Amino acid sequence: MERVVYSDNAATTPISKNVYNAMLPYLTSGYGNPSSLYSLGREEKKAMDQARAYVAKSLNCEPNEVIFTSGGSEADNLAIKGLFFSGKLPKNKRHIITSTFEHHAVLYTCEFMERIGYDVTYVNVDEQGHIKLDELEAAINENTALVTIMAANNEIGTIQDLKAISDICHKHGVLFHTDAVQAMGHMRIDVKELGIDMLSLSGHKLRGPKGTGALYCRKGIVLEPLIHGGGQERGKRSGTENVAGIVGLGEAVRYADENLESSMEYVTKLRDRLIEGVLKIPYTKLTGDPVNRLPGTASFVIECIEGESLVLRLDLAGIAASTGSACSTGSLDPSHVLMAIGLPHEVAHGSLRVTLGEQNTEEDVDYLIEKITYVVKTLRDMSPVWDEKINGQPMLKLFDK
Ligand SMILES: *Cc1c(COP(=O)(O)O)cnc(C)c1O
């Protein structure tokens, strides 16, 4: 049989067996409404409380500081819009600071806030994807209410110094939200130790179900709900709860939390083996911080190839990987993340992201290295740009200056 290697775990992850088993009763016999008074319903409420306790334990917060949502995007939206729409902030507090390379769930929410009259500053990152802390501090003014910076980047895997960021925020009386969707379940996060006021997470990025997520919101911070109605989630998020999904999310967090050290060690080893193999391809560079990066994330730019062609050919070899060099969007621009770390256009066009998980094996990694090396060579053999780079002479002169 043809080999299949799923190596796009930053896009989504397969539900684990334990998550599936935990959810199953709530898709069959456990269908009660958790708000009901009778026993079918109380059981569901209990299961949700357990899930909330697992999330709280992992983050080191109180269970009533966890609001379940429909995913990471909703959690990001709730943190940002909810804070400003609460009407509880002083009148002048209308300024948000974020970075240029956030996930679109944060970036486009901030752009929306600008359209309705709020001010947003987009702080730059360095070539490895670290927030420029001096720029961050300089951007804070007396109107600043919120800083929102992701814990770890979804394209290049760079992990931020969250403590340093929260220290700056709190020194100036500003709240700190972090999108930890990529980080959760892949590194230790203690919201108290790190000084995080709000944190977003998503179930399907840590082997839980899609359409589940949560926002941690520190006690005392008032949010206006995005969804009004029956008052579920202590009035912060109405709508009959996705009980099976919440149970699945809770189990995914519990499992990740209990196995974190061993899983980080295992996945990091696979990732480093992959990086070592791929960097043997000439004119190839690792993107992001070489050390402070997510355990599973291997991201590269490979010169003189086109990221989309590479990914499509890898697909033919049974490999699921991704690229930030999308032409399919109709724009020729590489992703905003690759632009933010200052890569020249022509280099950013050859980006490849391979994200591993604990379900991957050493054999998977060797297969990935073999196929990536082969496909890159094939693509370069057909490329006039490569020919010019290697021979100093264009194979075809396409354009005159
Ligand atoms: C996937 C992702 C999201 C969105 O989460 P969903 O649960 O898919 O809505 C937000 N932020 C980051 C960094 C992500 O990787």
In brief:
Helix content is 39%, strand content 13%. The chain contains 14 helices and twelve strands.
Key phrases:
alpha/beta, 39% helix, globular, 401 residues, seven-stranded mixed beta sheet, binds pyridoxal-5'-phosphate, three-stranded antiparallel beta sheet, disordered C terminus
Q: How would you explain this protein's 3D organization?
A:
With 401 residues, the chain is an alpha/beta fold. Helix content is 39%, strand content 13%. Helix 6 links the parallel strand 5 and strand 6. The longest helix has 21 residues, at 39-59. The radius of gyration is 22 Å and the shape is globular. Residues 71-73, 103, 105, 150, 154, 179, 181-182, 202, 204-205, 213 line the site of pyridoxal-5'-phosphate.
Low-confidence stretches: 397-401
Continuous helix count? 14
Computed over alpha carbons, the radius of gyration is 22 Å
Shape: globular
Mean pLDDT, all residues: 95
Q: Which class of secondary structure composition applies to the elements?
A: alpha/beta
- Helical content (DSSP H or I, runs of 4+): 25-40%
How is the secondary structure organized here?
Elements (H helix, E strand, L loop, with lengths): L4 E2 L10 H7 L15 H21 L6 E4 L2 H14 L9 E5 L4 H12 L3 E5 L9 H7 L4 E5 L13 H10 L3 E5 L11 H4 L3 E5 L10 E5 L25 H16 L1 H19 L5 E3 L10 E6 L4 H10 L2 E2 L15 H5 L4 H4 L2 E5 L6 H20 L2 H8 L10
Parallel strand pairs: 1-11, 3-4, 3-5, 5-6, 6-7
Antiparallel strand pairs: 2-8, 7-8, 9-10, 10-12
Helix pairs in contact: 1-8, 2-8, 3-4, 9-13, 10-13
